[in-house]
Design brief:
Helix content is 34%, strand content 13%. By secondary structure, the chain is α+β, with helices and mostly antiparallel strands.
Length: 166
């Protein structure tokens, strides 16, 4: 038994079912995910950080833009995101320095670790591992040129046959 509702954002009529209330949080107020995102910006003033669990005003003062999210803001507050980025940069630099600040393929040396790329020996699209973590057994240090060449070879090897976008 469908219930006819009116979206509080666009005033469009839409159907909803009582069983939907358990599955979707936006049922009953909004006609779509798009309107829900707008409604969250308009009516819900606070947002919870996914890392520190702090509750902040839903503004660009506390959250960065993220167009892929319904409310157009990151899930982490700016402070947590800065800490997370700094920790990742340190981890990345340490990994490169442990490998002698040189390319694993052509052995070019550079004192600056930001010059190098960290490459997955077997592409993550094949192994299904998380991109954010450095898996030491499946990672190597490559200069940008060697990294591009390897990516081209990986696309030829894995890409076309298995519908993998590398």
């Amino acid at each position: 038994m469908a219930i006819i509702k009116i979206c509080i954002i666009c005033n469009k009529k839409f159907k909803t079912f009582p069983s939907d209330y358990k599955r979707k949080g936006f049922v009953g107020k909004y006609c779509s995910q798009k309107c829900m995102g707008i409604g969250m910006l308009k009516y819900d003033g606070d947002k919870k950080c996914s890392i520190c669990k702090g509750i902040f005003n839903r503004t660009k003062e506390f959250f960065y833009n993220n167009k892929s999210k319904n409310d157009k803001l990151t899930t982490e507050c700016k402070e947590c995101l800065k800490k997370k980025t700094l920790a990742r940069t340190k981890e990345r630099s340490k990994f490169i320095e442990n490998h002698g600040n040189k390319c694993n393929s052509c052995n070019i040396y550079n004192i600056n670790p930001t010059f190098f790329d960290i490459d997955h020996v077997i592409p993550i699209q094949v192994t299904n591992e998380k991109r954010n973590k450095i898996n030491i057994s499946n990672s190597q240090v490559l200069c940008p040129n060697c990294h591009r060449l390897k990516t081209i070879k990986d696309k030829e090897k894995y890409g076309k046959d298995k519908n993998i976008n590398i």
